[in-house]
Write a structure and sequence with these properties.
Elements (H helix, E strand, L loop, with lengths): L2 H19 L4 E2 L3 E4 L2 E13 L3 E7 L1 H12 L8 H24 L4 E3 L3 E6 L6 E10 L2 E9 L2
Antiparallel strand pairs: 1-7, 2-7, 3-4, 3-5, 3-6, 4-8, 7-8
Amino acid sequence: MNVELINPFIQGTKQVLATVCGVDSKMGKVSVKTKPFEDKMNITIGIVGDIKGKVNYAFNLDVALFIASKMMFMEVTALDDISKSAICELANMISGSIATVFSNSGKIIDITPPKLEENYANCEVDKFISIPLEIEPGKIFEIDVWIEE
């Protein structure tokens, strides 16, 4: 996959995590990952337009609680409808930021609404480029990207 298509995902995600959650994320080793993502919470967003594909944000429950706490300005100890909505909105903001980065380089994309799934086993795509971002020691926010070529 063309690295020029992956960089906007990294740039947009790091920017929103810094702005919304106040965290400076560090990128880990990029790899190819195969499904399923059964051990994580997943938010999937479709990509349409000049580029077509999917982006999946995957993270453990402790990361979801950390993000929800940052967004809601209070400690969140369990995921309820409001905290789930908050992390879905973060994925929406990240995807919007990614769309802006692509737009600035002349590629117009649109995104589908976020879909939150726990124990995600029904993904129709076999392989993703996986980009782990460490948002705190031991807390990984993973960006999994599939671009139709």
